């Protein structure tokens, strides 16, 4: 009996020793595993950074990358698609948070895209309202050049008129005049196309635009319409008569750039009116007559532009079509001499006069480009 008890006690003592030894080994293994995991972590972090290096950039840098991914403001990106800021919100949660927290991404809104990706009208206008909300307090650029009626335009434009910096839209009749006849304290660039002609009973008056410097006006039919012409430094007038153009340019005395497209000759009853009027544009540096426009020669002869550096014209746009070479050249020479300008660039389109004739007549002009009329 005593011998059996001693054997059992010996077995337990040996077993306890083995268990203790294994426990010591387990602790050592756990410590080794912990050490290996600790050594692995920085290596894994380095590998992750190699795989996704952009995630290691500060948010401020990512924000600037996002801004440069889009067209330069005020040119708008598409509302949807791979080139839209919306796609930046669909990459990962980090990028989504950064994009939604960057008002500059959402401040230029284009409602003219006709691509297959563009949603329907209701969805498009909903996106416009969403973008304007995301833009925070930043100045806005809105292009509404498509034919949206008052029901759609007013909720987009009017709530943000104090932030609008660039605005383009169609004016289809007089019912939308309330959009543009209030105050726009930040508006710098205004482009309007008069789809159905706004003239007659109601005169367009746009005077509460203290920062307006650029205007583009298509089908501006009312000669009595009022803009702060004297503020403008850049003006484009399309599809108007020379009579209306004269009246406007008389007031736009601070223009630096001017682009003109004449709808046709003068109104017959007014053809001889103010023929001796000189239009002095003392700061004008760039003057462009669009190639297909036509006017009478008197309009060109009444201009005085002493600071002019660049002139682009066509013979029909100045009433010089079908004239002799010498008459065309003499007309240009008379204009340059009368203005006292030092032209650096002359571009003549739709002309029957050879380029060498222009170069011989105007040797002091460094850049002369001629697009001869094709028979």
From TrEMBL:
Q: What is the lineage of its organism?
A: Eukaryota, Fungi, Dikarya, Basidiomycota, Agaricomycotina
| Originating species | Favolaschia claudopus
Q: Matching Gene3D superfamilies, A to Z?
A: 1.20.1280.50
Alphabetically list the UniProt keywords.
Coiled coil
The name this protein goes by in its record = F-box domain-containing protein
Q: Which domain of life is it from?
A: Eukaryota
The residue stretches assigned to a coiled coil in this entry are 12-39
